[in-house]
Amino acid sequence: MAEILSPMMIGAALAGGYLLGSIPFGVIATRLGGAGDLRSIGSGNIGATNVLRTGRKDLALLTLLGDGGKGAVAVLLAWLATRDGTAEQQAVLTSLAGGAAFLGHLFPVWLGFKGGKGVATFFGTLLAAAWPVGLAAGATWLIVAFLSRISSLAALVAVALAPLVALLLGRPNAIALLALFMALLVLVRHAENIRRLLKGQEPRIGAKTSEMAGHNGGPPLPPELYKDKGNPPG
């Protein structure tokens, strides 16, 4: 039983998780959908928020599901690999696989290590690794978003509280460390958003497209891309 976490299995979880996380669903979806190169649109970010700036809500939804799903798949595969092990062993391997998938999304090898901000992958990974913690984080996002009407603030509060929630709910230490690891990286990746929040300049949900130009640190969009008039979440 102790051999279930052999170096080979740990290496496979880390490598497999990273490669899964590196799949750039936003770039793939926009190219196949005829929306162009996502990295030259809006903020240049590869996440669903930037995909929505193309006016293609269908592609944005696919990206959101793909980015969240790849973290969940990495965790579930690690869980299956340790189904004969102890709960602690499962928590360790799923956390390693989930953390590797999260790193893959932020630093994908296929895109020169220039990836997304990680919010969707954070939620997908956490829901699969410890669904009560993931649901609590999602509820936190909804409450803060409803009260503040600022999507980035809701995400930052949700990820920051997730490690504490994991501890309060009695999850294994590996899960709490996974939540902390991802939360710290999300905060780092949202440095520009945090600066705008402190200045009171972060766009609100439902803002007009003109107010969104340059959101997430990107340049204003060209007029032909001003198809969607709502402020996307994320």
Could you explain the architecture of this structure?
It is built from 11 helices and no strands. It has 234 residues and is mostly helical. It has one domain. α1 (7-21) packs antiparallel against α4, α7 (131-148) packs antiparallel against α8 and α8 runs antiparallel to α9 (173-189). The longest helix is centred in the first third of the chain and has 25 residues, at 57-81.
Please tell me the overall pLDDT: 87
- Tally of helical segments: 11
Shape: globular
> What is the percent of helical residues?
55-70%
Task: Supply Rg.
Answer: 18 Å
Q: State the low-pLDDT regions, or none.
A: 209-234
Topology summary:
Elements: H1 7-21, H2 25-32, H3 48-52, H4 57-81, H5 87-106, H6 119-129, H7 131-148, H8 151-168, H9 173-189, H10 191-199, H11 209-212
Helix pairs in contact: 1-4, 1-5, 2-4, 4-5, 4-6, 5-6, 5-9, 6-7, 6-9, 7-8, 8-9
Write a concise keyword list for the protein shown above.
globular, 64% helix, 0% strand, mainly alpha, disordered C terminus, 234 residues
Give a quick rundown of the structure:
The chain has 11 helices and no strands.
